[in-house]
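INFO  loader      accepted 1 record
INFO  loader      residues=177
INFO  predictor   begin
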Amino acid sequence: MKKPPGGRRHHEFPHSDIMCAFMTGPLHLRQVIPPLIARTSEGKIIRAWDYKQKSPLAILFIHADCPQCENWLGHLTKRSVDLIDRDAVALVIYSDLPPQKGKGLGPPFVAATDISGHSQIAFLGPDAFGSAGLGRVGAFVTDRYGDLFGQWTGRDADKLPPVEEILDLLDVIQRIC
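INFO  predictor   done
INFO  writer      dumping tokens
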């Protein structure tokens, strides 16, 4: 495995070269993701495993009251057709009740809340809520079997990847799965 400048790792698999995001979170490349359970504003329980063997996932942990996070999500929602073309679903997970905007997200987006915090800790690490309430954000991309292909975590939305990087990773997943 080579790590060229720019924070990417280059992985070579038989018959393909795959670029994967530099791992900045507690999970490991090609690890099966931990359980994710959240509740939509309508009260429906969603699990990452509901999509197993059906769709690759973009799992997004963002702040509900953060203009930067909402701006980043807005860029991704503008590319919803591209997510649909890749048969992907975007699970948008808030640590508190989703704002009205979250309720209005249509397919392929599902907005939900992780009130218990268990999913956030599993994905973002033990300091998911940080000191003084400075919670972390994160983006995770999996194949349809729940294997992790990319993750980005940080305190602010500026640590989230460009939308194009998520779409590129989903392209790779679509080619190899």
